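Kindly inspect this one:
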Amino acid sequence: MPLTFAVRGTPSLPLYLIAPEDLDATLAHLSPSQAGWVRAQGFKAAAGAVCLLPGADGIAGALAGLGTPQDRARQRFILGAVRTKLPKGTYHLETDLAGDALEEQLLGWLLSGYVFDIYAKKSAPEADLVAPEGLNAAGLEAIALGEALTRDLINTPANDMGPAELEFAARGLAEEHGAEIAVTTGGALLDRNFPMIHAVGRASPRAPRLIDMRWGASGPKLTLVGKGVCFDTGGLNLKPGSSMGLMKKDMGGAATVLGLAKMIMALELPLQLRVLIPAVENAVDGSAFRPQDILTSRKGLTVEINNTDAEGRLVLADALALADETPSDLLISMATLTGAARVALGPDVPPFFATDAQDATRLTNASVRVADPLWQLPYWEPYETMIEPGIADLDNAPSGGMAGAITAALFLRRFVTETPRYMHFDIYGWCPAPLPARPKGGVGQGARAILAALPELLDL
């Protein structure tokens, strides 16, 4: 999978990445015959457009369009679209872009090399690029490889990606980077007081488990918690077929925190990392947990089950309670949690919640810098009563259908009482239609923004 740059010093052809207003100046630097060729082709530097330059022995280079500022606001990773249109060869970039704008395009180039070809042969782009001088090429490659891990995990169907396989992926990542890992499985979850993880996963023949990975011996402490529901039937509140079709992606939170962990460890950030993943399959048999059951969580809070399809917050709650017993400097949870978040913001923009206003500002600024969009929603205190059913401490599925993303976030926050700085992300984890550098399928959301914000968030 071509997710790296070509070796510096490799002979290469120029690739001019230009906006429409720079076209005339670029043509002035070409030979008259090449400039005439470009004009004859009607090339206007539209976003993602490509015009090959003729040379004495074939192709002498290429022009690629950045489009207008409005085009760039509407479409990320334009250079990723360019790569798929270029013939085989090695290129070097000629552009006025710099800083974050340049890195966005170069990451798009790398990510356009991603293909999921485990089950069917697919071709990857054959064009290579020499990284510009002064660029932290290894850093961008680490980000691309972390994103590729997230995509692979989400894209793998549930028959090949159950709790055991998710554990196997985490163990492989731990071995790659010298991390420690411990896993609590099956009945041991009850022995070690993870009752809600066990309750959600017990109906499946694939044993539920809690994965606990640690890396780093010094520095600030960061804990990542990812929802690992490897398939969600909805339980006894069975989903209709139209809603069940994408449920292999319901472990997208786990996939995203593992991808982020891979980035952090590959970049050797000076921090102490902990990753917690409750991995289950929400299945149906005679032992499945039921509507109106009341579960007692690790935290001691009781939860009335008013919908077995609101299971993600249950498994996350036990994992968050464990994380909260050893408070970290920053605690983050990521989950494909609510349809309400998609109704509010669509598939592209995940909402996040933060207990610290300064953390939220830093994260929002970082998300803009690295083109990884996020939008803050509030922990709206007046809605707390919506998650209090009266018969138990908490309701896992408040009636009424309003503010579903917020009430889910408020539910999770009840399990974080000792860690002052907590952020929760309600991601989608799926690209519903192909876009530059993002084929249809699993996709990471929020990880790059978090990574970019970590130096400020943790004073690294």
User: Anything to note?
Assistant: The chain has two domains: 13-134, 142-457. The radius of gyration is 24 Å. The domain at 13-134 is CATH 3.40.220.10 (Leucine Aminopeptidase, subunit E; domain 1). The mean pLDDT is 97.
